[in-house]
Amino acid sequence: xxxxxxxxxxxxxxxxxxxxxxxxxxxxxxxxxxxxxxxxxxxxxxxxxxxxxxxxxxxxxxxxxxxxxxxxxxxxxxxxxxxxxxxxxxxxxxxxxxxxxxxxxxxxxxxxxxxxxxxxxxxxxxxxxxxxxxxxxxxxxxxxxxxxxxxxxxxxxxxxxxxxxxxxxxxxxxxxxxxxxxxxxxxxxxxxxxxxxxxxxxxxxxxxxxxxxxxxxxxxxxxxxxxxxxxxxxxxxxxxxxxxxxxxxxxxxxxxxxxxxxxxxxxxxxxxxxxxxxxxxxxxxxxxxxxxxxxxxxxxxxxxxxxxxxxxxxxxxxxxxx
Length: 322
Prior knowledge:
Elements: E1 3-9, H1 16-24, E2 29-34, H2 41-50, E3 55-59, H3 67-82, E4 86-90, E5 94-96, H4 100-107, E6 115-124, H5 133-136, E7 139-140, E8 149-154, H6 155-158, E9 163-165, E10 172-174, E11 181-182, E12 187-195, H7 201-219, H8 230-240, H9 247-258, H10 264-268, E13 272-273, H11 291-306, E14 317-319
């Protein structure tokens, strides 16, 4: 069984090494497309690739939030290049909760011509003194709370044209015939995906600002009228109006955004200790990310493009690790 993963990342220096090491120990190959990071994400990816891990690093220079377009093309290319039976669409803050044997066992009933979904379990930081991100975010919400699911795409369908991922990789659609039709995606009951969205106040600020402004660039005026990335709009408005975030907000924002806003406080009182296995890290700084520098980098690229020094974006370009 050939299992590969594809991810598009931006400003994930605090967690990207843990993400790559975790999945390179479980997948046959991992493709990571760097979306113009302004932190050390690109340097860390290059160092990991130089180690000889089964990792391909790609880049996209688009400033707007073009995740769905980039991920669709990357998944097709990766499935074809590696003869994949299954392709996992992953974000850098998502970790498969299974070793290789368990992963194969969970995927065995799935037809490579089908798409399936897996449960998405949100983790929050409770050990602020820990320097390893997987040790800092060792607490998760109860297992019976499944607001969101994520997709796994069978290799044969991944290689074909005519289908598209939804934003966030939560669903897939048949795009043939001129209109979108949701593809049936049964739940794989034994496989879970740990979700670690907010790891520090600095990282939250960068994610909120770039998340919303990138959506505005992509959707234009329509962004304010759509539910897509509405959580970034609310958090951005709060921050722009003078609101601040603290360590407690990392937990509250994660649970209210990704789990259940009505039960947020109750769920925070029911957190369960369930850490992921934490591989040793060689390139990850114990310090939180520099939010001002990352946002300055993004703003600089935006100004350069506005004044005519470059097009709005280019397709992802892959650099092989071979």
